[in-house]
Amino acid sequence: EVQLVESGGGLVKPGGSLRLSCAASGFTFSSYSMNWVRQAPGKGLEWVSYISSSSSYIFYADSVKGRFTISRDNAKNSLYLQMNSLRAEDTAVYYCARDLLGHSGGFDYWGQGTLVTVSS
Amino acid sequence: DIQMTQSPSSLSASVGDRVTITCRASQSISSYLNWYQQKPGKAPNLLIYAASNLLSGVPSRFSGSGSGTDFTLTISSLQPEDFATYYCQQSYSSPWTFGQGTKVEIK
Predict the structure, then answer these.
(1) Which residues of chain A lie closer than 8 angstroms to B44, CB-CB?
(2) pLDDT (mean) for A25-53
C-alpha cells in the first residue's frame, strides 16, 4: 500500500524557517517524481514545488522561489521541503504528492498533510 | 502562468442527479487536464487524468471530456459520497495550476 506521511509542520514566526519531511513507503520511491502542494485555510490548492526521480529537474512556484528548497534522499525514501524567510501567506496545510507515472503533473497519491502556521 | 477557471463555484444537487462541472484554461493545454475530489479535512484524490482517463478504482459514474481550453467533469448519477469539492488542474506546463474549486452540496 502506497503511503506518504508528512511531518515537521508547526508554528513559526515571520522570517523563520521550517523543514518539512515526507516519508514514502509501499512503492519504489526512486522511480517517481514528487511534489509539494499546499492549501491555505479555507482556500484552494496551490502547487509549490516538483523534483524529478533523480533530482535532475526541480521547479518552484514563483511565490516560493528563492525561499524554499525541495530535495530528496532516495536511500531513505524521503522527500523534504526547506522553507526559509517564511511569511504569513505561507500558512497552509502542506501535502507531499506523488507524480502519476507517465503523466507528470498529475498527482495520484497524497499524504495527509502537515500544517504550517506563520504568525507572531 | 496558465489560469484555470471552473464553473460553477458551487452547486446544489440531489442524489441521482447528473452533475456537470466545467473548467476553462487561459490557453490551450491539449489534454493535460486532471480532476480531483476533496472532502473536508482530507487530502485530494485524483479521479481523472489526461482529460478523460479514469484512475483505477474510481467509479465509472465519473467521466471527463474536452481538449484545448474547455473541459468537463460529469457525474452521471450523484451518490451521497460524491458531495465534496472538485478541482481541475493543468499539467501542460509549470507552474501546474488548479482551478478555484467547485463545491457540490446536497439539495
Answers:
(1) 45, 95, 107, 110
(2) 97
